[in-house]
Amino acid sequence: MNAMEGISIKNVTKTYSQRILFSKKTFNAVENVSLDITTDPPEIFSLVGESGSGKSTLANMILQLIKPDIGEILLNGKKINDFEMLEFMKKIQPIFQDPFDSFDPMKKTDLFIYETVKNFNIARNKDSINYIIDQCLQKVGLNYQMIKGRYPHEFSGGQLQRIAIARALVVKPLFLVADEPVSMLDASLRISIVNLFKQLKEKENLSVLYITHDLSTAYYISDRIGVMLRGNLVEIGNAKEILGEPLHPYTQFLMKALLEPDPDKTKISLFDNEKNEEKMTEVSEYQLKGCKYANRCPNVKKICREKNPEYYYIKNRKIKCFLYEEFK
Ligand SMILES: Nc1ncnc2c1ncn2[C@@H]1O[C@H](COP(=O)(O)OP(=O)(O)OP(=O)(O)O)[C@@H](O)[C@H]1O
């Protein structure tokens, strides 16, 4: 049997320690996560969850920026750390939260992309390099003339994010890892950028891991969604089904927060808003022996505090919650 085309995350754990007040706390920022995201056929998989739930840690392991402590990540069946860096970066490209981080502020944007094409050995002569750049810019709704000779600060955040995506496209990747790519943009621009991911999937066969707090954009573009809670993927499945009818109490809470106009009513902190106490809440939830949502869950049972639930399967959905024990 052929290996799956795409990314396979296999039982991955990343452990961190933090000093909070006078004590050192150790916790799994990502805990025994397994997930397959296909590139053939391409899909948009959104990873959603509150701040501090382990989304970026998982993304950074996929991008090889950090190493898992346990488990492994495969790309097309091959361990990602066995790839040559250049070969790996041709297949998986990051899109950052702040598009200004993707560019050298002192360099004209076209020159910066030109160098990317050259460094990755995509083309050698000037005409073919310019042609590739123009093609990639057109895929994001721009063209070469629009960026020629201009520095990053001469563009709006939305335009620059498009240029950053075009730059990622020059290496013909299979997969984009986009960590909060629209959170720094004006609300009015966000949907046009996330829509671009959808177009790239449909027209260029690109898969996207879209990391976001924003359930509404995730609903709009995703094929599947994974809900992350303190290092655990607690609900995984079809995006429209999950967001249309969330089953895990934590997903239900996130949906309620989306619809609640007063953010104070869905504040994550169990205490007040002091930084240390928020951090303590976050880390103490991470350290819970049972379900990480047990202290906040309206449906909590005795077993939820004793054991971290396994997955239960309802139709195409995986849910990590004892409420669904009967669906084992
Ligand atoms: N290098 C590190 N050392 C110690 N703790 C870390 C480190 N990086 C992340 N953490 C902690 O791991 C947890 C998960 O962080 P992570 O950034 O992955 O969450 P996130 O869901 O991406 O949040 P956000 O949306 O705010 O970026 C947090 O409690 C964070 O403080």
TrEMBL record:
Sequence ranges assigned to domain ABC transporter in this UniProt record: 7-255
SUPFAM superfamilies linked: P-loop containing nucleoside triphosphate hydrolases
SMART domains noted in UniProt: AAA (SM00382)
InterPro entries documented for this protein: AAA+_ATPase, ABC_transporter-like_ATP-bd, ABC_transporter-like_CS, Oligopep_ABC_C, P-loop_NTPase
Membrane-spanning residues: none
Keyword field: ATP-binding, Nucleotide-binding, Transport
Molecular function in Gene Ontology: ATP binding; ATP hydrolysis activity
GO BP: peptide transport
Protein name per Swiss-Prot or TrEMBL: ABC-type oligopeptide transport system, ATPase component
Species: Defluviitoga tunisiensis
